[in-house]
Amino acid sequence: MTSHCDVLIAGAGIIGCTTALALADHGLSVVCAGQDAVTPGVASGAAGAMLGVLGEVTAAEDGQLGEAELLLRHEAALAWPALAGRITDLSGQPVPIEHGTVIIAYLGSSTDLACMAAIRAAALRLGLPCEPVAPASVPYLSPAPVYQPAEALWLALLRWRSGHHG
Q1: pLDDT one-digit tens code per residue, 143-161
Q2: How far is it between the farthest Cα atoms of the chain?
Q3: Phi then psi for 114, rounded to 5 degrees?
Q4: Between β-strands 30-36 and 7-12, what pairing exists: parallel, antiparallel or unpaired?
Q5: pTM, whole model, 2 decimals?
Q6: Residues in contact with 55: Cβ distance below 8 Å, sequence separation at least 6, in sequence order
Q7: Is 118:112 a contact under the CB 8 Å cutoff?
Q8: Pairing of strands 131-133, 30-36
Q9: Domain coordinates of the chain in residue numbers?
Q10: Which helix (H) or strand (E) is 11 found in, with range?
Q11: Among 3, 73, 150, 151, which one is least packed by beta carbons within 10 Å?
């Protein structure tokens, strides 16, 4: 039996599947070979963090460049559900995506507190919900006494790729 493809992609996680979709959209026949996105240790675990629009915002953003990066992350996050749907439709493998996360600022860090203010401001500019929550209400948060949280924000629309199907 002889088979042919134009491109063989080593990696069947989210990055490999996305690359395969882009190449197939340009008329190439593509095969992805490798472990799926939920296998421990594959790159898709890290790729899932790329869905965070606000998690990388800092108080030290560089003016126009920082704003351009923020807008690019926001546009990418908006495009993600359609991309994940295409991958699921073509591969038969769901891309597990979760919603919502908490960001916590440490009481002893003026940098953390400044970043929280920058995150709130960025959320307001993008029209994304960003709600303060009591750190004591965050499940499983049990910091050492010297790392007490000052504040916490619930980012309901922040998406992340979970490491399991279901």
Answers
A1: 988 889 999 999 888 777 6
A2: 66
A3: -65, -40
A4: parallel
A5: 0.73
A6: 49, 101, 103, 155, 158
A7: no
A8: unpaired
A9: 49-161
A10: strand 7-12
A11: 3
